[in-house]
Amino acid sequence: MAGIIGIYGLVVSVLIANDLKQNLPLYTGFVQLGAGLAVGLAGLAAGFAIGIVGDAGVRGTAQQPRLFVGMILILIFAEVLVLKLPAKWEQSENIIDEHL
């Protein structure tokens, strides 16, 4: 599950790389920097959450096997932290473009 979080970062980096031009306005550079930092930090937080939940889930499942489904659901919710950020990045870039 943690490998998928890395793919989110790769997707955002490809989106940023496709938008690069020779003369890039300063505000676009800051928006792209913010998008990269947001996805990276959210990925870090989701990775910590997955690690903590995975550790507790493996220990709990060893004692009570019916906890497995709940553990998987909690892992999915921890991973959803990263899903919403690329959409927010696209919204913020559109808002900035409208005001300039």
TrEMBL record:
Q: Does the keyword Iron apply?
A: no
Q: Where are the transmembrane segments?
A: 33-54, 66-83
Q: One GO term of the cellular component aspect?
A: vacuolar membrane
Q: Which residues form the signal peptide?
A: none
MF terms in GO = proton-transporting ATPase activity, rotational mechanism
Per the record, the major location class is membrane
Q: Which residues form the V-ATPase proteolipid subunit C-like domain?
A: 33-83
Q: What is its membrane topology?
A: Multi-pass membrane protein
Superkingdom in the source lineage: Eukaryota
Q: Which InterPro entries match?
A: ATPase_proteolipid_c-like_dom, ATPase_proteolipid_csu, ATPase_proteolipid_su_C_euk, F/V-ATP_Csub_sf
Q: Which UniProt keywords apply?
A: Hydrogen ion transport, Ion transport, Membrane, Transmembrane, Transmembrane helix, Transport, Vacuole
Q: Where found?
A: Membrane; Vacuole membrane
Q: Say which family it is in.
A: Belongs to the V-ATPase proteolipid subunit family.
NCBIfam families cross-referenced by the UniProt entry? V_ATP_synt_C
Q: What is this protein's function?
A: Proton-conducting pore forming of the V0 complex of vacuolar(H+)-ATPase (V-ATPase), a multisubunit enzyme composed of a peripheral complex (V1) that hydrolyzes ATP and a membrane integral complex (V0) that translocates protons. V-ATPase is responsible for acidifying and maintaining the pH of intracellular compartments. Proton-conducting pore forming subunit of the V0 complex of vacuolar(H+)-ATPase (V-ATPase), a multisubunit enzyme composed of a peripheral complex (V1) that hydrolyzes ATP and a membrane integral complex (V0) that translocates protons. V-ATPase is responsible for acidifying and maintaining the pH of intracellular compartments.
Subunit description: V-ATPase is a heteromultimeric enzyme composed of a peripheral catalytic V1 complex (components A to H) attached to an integral membrane V0 proton pore complex (components: a, c, c', c'', d, e, f and VOA1). The decameric c-ring forms the proton-conducting pore, and is composed of eight proteolipid subunits c, one subunit c' and one subunit c''.
Q: What is this protein called?
A: V-type proton ATPase proteolipid subunit
Species this chain originates from: Arthroderma benhamiae (strain ATCC MYA-4681 / CBS 112371)
